Amino acid sequence: MTDKKEVILSGIRPTGRLHYGNYFGAIRHFLRLQETDACCYYFIADYHALTTITERQEIYRATLDMLRTYVACGLDPYKSVIYRQSDLPCTAELSLLLGMLTNIGHLERGTTYKDKFTRLQEDPKSEGNPLSYGLLGYPVLMAADILIVRADLVPVGDDQRQHLEMACDIAAKFNHRFGEVLHIPRPLGRDALRLPGLDGSEKMGKSENNTLDLLDPPKTVLDKIKAVPTTTEPAPLDTDSNDPDIVIGKMPSGVGVLYRLLSLLAPEEVYLDYLDQYRKGGKFYGSLKKAVAEYASQFNAPIIESYNDPAHNDDFIKEFLRENAKRVTPVALETVERCREAMGIGHSLYRA
Ligand code: TRP
Predict the structure, then answer these.
(1) Ligand 1 and 143: CB distance under 6 A
(2) The CATH classification of domain 6-102+137-195+313-343, taken from the options 3.90.660.20, 2.170.130.30, 3.30.428.10, 3.40.50.620
(3) Contact between residue 182 and residue 175 where contact means Cβ atoms under 8 Å apart
């Protein structure tokens, strides 16, 4: 791993079971990048998970299970550096240092904080935990994650774009004040696919309870797909395009989800054939649902098999977490030490 290689970093919160939105929005990009000669850091943001905690939750368990699913999807913890955020506690130190030059006003405009603030104004009893210092500081911790490994590129979805920009702003401010210490990433989001939910709503998400999961067995897949709302008959599409990005938005929302999934999972001719049927009208939703469910189950089968492989047990996961923490720690510590030095408190004598 030389300094010249492009450094890519992305994090994902330990939300439990991974769904198709995670896969097509993030994981498949991670898989592609893993095959380039870039140095890829992917981590589970378990510190960030604590911003929504109301009581003790099994974050550690969720982290291990998620990593097991990552591996089952084909992420190779020895090609990509996959680690746990909290195994790099110096991230918290960098976050503290960066916090010293971050305006509260800037943070109050952060989407995550602002949304929760608004919700609480509307209904003070709506959330279990208060507006915390940690939640306000969410973007600072995220900046620390990014800057600590000196990332060049941070592939994130639309919802994280603002946080990424804040990280760049914080780094620029640091450099302006203390010298060119921090490496500012290219502020480029990946053109992430936002997968709609199975209920037809705009986004598939765990809290929306509308997900198709990578570990769903065939029966669950079929039940979930059958329940996708398709009461509206096909209406003329007013476009000749076959591009899913164009046609899907013109369909009733539940139907659009089915076509989106088909376009991702099935051979193109199958997708085109069903699109043709849509254009002709008629009753074919039953057959469409069966097809989507079958392709999804086929997609899940090898992931489920690999997930259940005893070789991918907790010991295997903990072992690569340990190894990867060892790989990323020197890189991270160097950044923190440079920042300490630049700000004037000097190196940590204990660490030296
Ligand atoms: N905030 C991101 C999310 O909620 C997760 C995350 C934390 C992250 N730190 C990061 C993503 C650094 C990219 C880079 O999805």
Answers:
(1) no
(2) 3.40.50.620
(3) yes
Dihedral of alpha carbons 16, 20, 23, 25, sign: negative
13 CA closest ligand 1 atom index:
5
Architecture of domain 216-307: Orthogonal Bundle (1.10)
Q: What distance in angstroms lies between residue 176's CA and the mean position of ligand 1's atoms?
A: 25
Q: Per-residue pLDDT for 2 more than 50?
A: no
pLDDT tens sequence across 229-281: 998 778 888 889 999 999 998 999 899 999 999 999 999 999 999 999 999 88
Instruction: Kindly give the number of the ligand 1 atom that is closest to the alpha carbon of 163.
Output: 1
For the chain, domain boundaries: 6-102+137-195+313-343, 216-307
Closest residue by CA, ligand 1 atom 15: 12
Is pLDDT larger for residue 151 or for residue 231? 151
The residue type found at 52 is: T
| Ligand 1 in reach of 107 Cβ (< 6 A) | no
| Ligand 1 proximity of 69 Cβ (cutoff 6 Å) | no
Ligand 1 atom at minimal distance to the Cα of residue 9: 14
pLDDT tens track for 201-232: 999 998 889 999 999 999 999 999 999 999 87
pLDDT at 13: 92
**What is the enclosing helix (H) or strand (E) of 74?**
none
- b/e per residue, 149-177, with b = 16+ CB within 10 A? bbbbbbbbbeebbbbbebbbbbbebbeee
Instruction: List the one residue out of 188, 140, 152 whose CA is nearest residue 36.
Output: 152
Q: Is 48 in the pocket of ligand 1 (CB under 6 A)?
A: yes
CA–centroid distance, 338 to ligand 1, in Å, is: 23
Cα-to-centroid distance, 2 and ligand 1 (Å)? 25
